[in-house]
Write a structure and sequence with these properties.
Layout: E1 3-5, E2 12-16, E3 22-25, H1 27-32, E4 37-40, H2 45-62, E5 89-90, H3 99-110, H4 115-123, E6 129-131, H5 142-148, E7 159-162, H6 163-166, H7 198-210, E8 240-244, H8 248-254, E9 268-269, H9 280-288, H10 295-299, E10 304-308, E11 319-324, E12 340-344, E13 356-360, H11 372-376, E14 380-381, E15 384-385, H12 390-400, E16 411-421, E17 430-441, H13 442-445, H14 453-470, H15 472-482, H16 491-514, H17 521-545, H18 549-553, E18 555-556, E19 562-563, H19 565-579, H20 581-584
Antiparallel strand pairs: 1-6, 2-3, 2-4, 5-9, 7-11, 8-16, 10-11, 12-13, 14-15, 16-17, 18-19
Helix pairs in contact: 2-7, 14-17, 15-16, 15-19, 16-17, 17-19
């Protein structure tokens, strides 16, 4: 008999919109009352991102088969008991009007999910038990693990890991204690960090399948005679991006891609098959056969074969055995809509990589707006073309519909999430998460025409970078030279550049948030340039005021003029005057 069913047990952490308090809800409850919750509220945003994709997999599956009234599309064959789609649909068999997008529009208008979602979950109840002899959620059975993995020298099938290994607020290995852990083992029994409640275990299990690392050694035996690169977790390599609405219902809908045209232009529409619609061994096979070919599979992908102790009790010390699975294809896998992309130049060591896009992880040291072009998929990055994330393209298509014009005044939040690793390619241990968001009016976000808002904002971001490099950076370099730092030591320059970016960060976010689609582009651009000029002047003046005797004494470089902090500051002010001359000329 199964134990701890995710349909009924309260394991999803949400933030209530009415009280502002967090609470735990079941899988069925989260869909029944999504409009009552502001957001997911788990232990980490990376965890919320992984859980969000599981919820999206439910919606992608259900509404690829049923319309907003719970009626099967008449061009599909549906199993009456399991609600499964029996065959792919030829694109030529689809109606002229996109039926999937029509479903999306109707769901958005209703503001809630129909009963068909509950019925679908009930049809698959037996596959949502956390502990089960046949279909354990996101796992294989101990007996199956013995078939998949060779026994090691300790007589174990797989790598033994503990609660502290999958709890990503700890991520502690057996060799090194994590400092500043949120869980302190005051008793020194080395056990309390491994304790997990059942609801925590579900959330960490989902997240672990997405962010695994590579420290564990055991691998699932090859099912076919093909080479395999083993996964550290699909989500680990993503520069995650998603849209956030005013409540969880809107967030789920905004990220639920229901359209026959927004996808790759395939002859047949792929059948959505989440992991719970396959047996554990079937789930293992698809990674060796490169068959993760639909979003529901992608959103519920595994990076590990995992086997739990069936006798584990709530709140006790947890351990399990894991084995690596092959990674999902990264090269131009545009089925993934929730990532940013980067251009991959030809790799001489890998003949199949030549001028391709691969997922681009976020920079932990830079605010996301500094890479506005990557986020919007416009222009270039380091002289390489940018590609728009699928979720941004999807939102553009939503807003093009005449019935959705009211979204024009909608303040859209674009959220980004990534995992930062330890830099060790032998382990890729997660050490921190990278989260950020920017907000702007929809009318601004979707104005991606030539000379539109998106192009203007991107130009301003580029010009912000350029003007900082031509004003503050030369000034700081001169100070560095005066103080006798090595010419190749850029630490002081980097420090002051990033300090300025930190000082203008909130100003830029506020400026972006306040833009209305009806505003004058010229006036808003001048407004930002004035803010930027003031910030640069203030940072330079602060550096000048904190001078030392050595700065005032200055230096006489060989074959160069005498330089001290005063002459450097004067040159800094002249550079500002040149770079912002247009402000004195009326902004033309």
């Amino acid at each position: 008999m199964g134990r701890y069913n995710l349909l009924d047990e309260k394991w999803i952490m949400v933030l209530r919109e009415d009280t502002g308090q967090t609470e735990k809800v079941s899988l069925k409850e989260v869909f029944a009352h999504a409009g009552d919750y502001y957001d997911l509220a788990g232990e980490m945003k990376t965890q919320d991102f992984a859980v969000l994709r599981v919820l999206l997999a439910v919606l992608q599956t259900v509404f690829s088969r049923f319309d907003s009234e719970g009626i099967p599309y008449d061009f599909l064959e549906i199993n009456e008991n399991t609600f499964q789609q029996l065959e792919p649909v030829d694109r030529d068999d689809l109606p002229d009007e996109d039926p999937y997008f029509e479903t999306w529009l109707n769901l958005w208008e209703k503001g809630k999910f129909p009963e068909i979602v509950q019925n679908y979950l009930e049809a698959w109840r037996d596959h949502f038990y956390l502990f089960d002899d046949k279909y354990p959620f996101y796992q294989v059975t101990p007996e199956e693990m013995k078939e998949l993995v060779e026994k090691n020298s300790k007589g174990e099938y797989g790598t033994l890991i503990y609660g502290k290994n999958i709890n990503r607020t700890i991520s502690e290995s057996g060799n090194k204690i994590t400092l500043f852990s949120p869980i302190i083992d005051a008793t020194k029994t080395k056990g309390i960090k491994n304790n997990l409640k059942n609801d925590q275990l579900v959330r960490w299990l989902i997240m672990y399948q997405g962010y695994s690392g590579t420290a564990d050694k055991a691998k699932v035996r090859k099912r076919e005679a093909t080479e395999a690169t083993y996964s550290k977790g699909w989500l680990y390599d993503l520069g995650g991006i998603y849209l956030k609405g005013h409540n969880l219902f809107e967030t789920l809908m905004l990220n639920c891609i229901l359209s026959s045209d927004i996808d790759l232009k395939l002859d047949k529409m792929k059948v959505q098959i989440p992991s719970w619609e396959r047996s554990p061994l079937e789930n293992i096979d698809i990674y060796f056969r490169n068959m993760v070919d639909n979003r529901a599979s992608l959103y519920t992908n595994w990076s590990r074969a995992i086997s739990f102790d069936k006798d584990f009790q709530d709140g006790m010390q947890f351990h399990c055995f894991v084995a690596k699975l092959p990674e999902i294809n990264h090269i131009e896998n545009f089925m993934e809509p929730m990532t940013c992309w980067k251009w991959m130049e030809e790799n001489k060591n890998k003949k199949n990589i030549k001028h391709k896009y691969i997922p681009r992880r976020h920079n932990p040291n830079e605010a996301v707006w500094r890479h506005f072009n990557v986020l919007m998929g416009i222009g270039e990055e380091e002289n390489k073309p940018c590609r728009q994330p699928g979720i941004i393209s999807w939102y553009d298509s939503i807003c093009e519909n005449s019935s959705m014009r009211k979204l024009q005044r909608f303040k859209m939040a674009i959220c980004t999430v990534s995992m930062r690793d330890d830099g060790n390619s032998n382990s890729w241990v997660p050490v921190d998460e990278i989260i950020d968001e920017i907000q702007m009016e929809t009318a601004v976000l979707i104005d991606n025409n030539k000379n539109g808002w998106v192009e203007l904002i991107n130009t301003l971001v580029d010009n912000t970078r350029s003007r900082i490099e031509k004003t503050l950076v030369p000034f700081v370099r001169q100070i560095s030279t005066i103080r006798g730092y090595d010419n190749k030591d850029y630490h002081f320059v980097e420090q002051e550049r990033e300090r300025l970016y930190l000082e203008i960060d909130q100003s830029f976010r506020d400026w972006l948030y306040e833009i209305k689609g009806t505003d004058s582009m010229n006036d808003k651009a001048l407004e930002w340039y004035r803010l930027l000029k003031e910030a640069i002047q203030n940072r330079g003046t602060e550096l000048f005021r904190n001078t030392s005797f050595k700065d005032l004494k200055g230096i006489q470089q060989k074959d160069k003029e005498f330089t001290n902090i005063a002459t450097a500051y004067n040159k800094f002010k002249r550079n500002i005057a040149v770079q912002f001359k247009f402000l004195q000329e009326g902004g033309k």
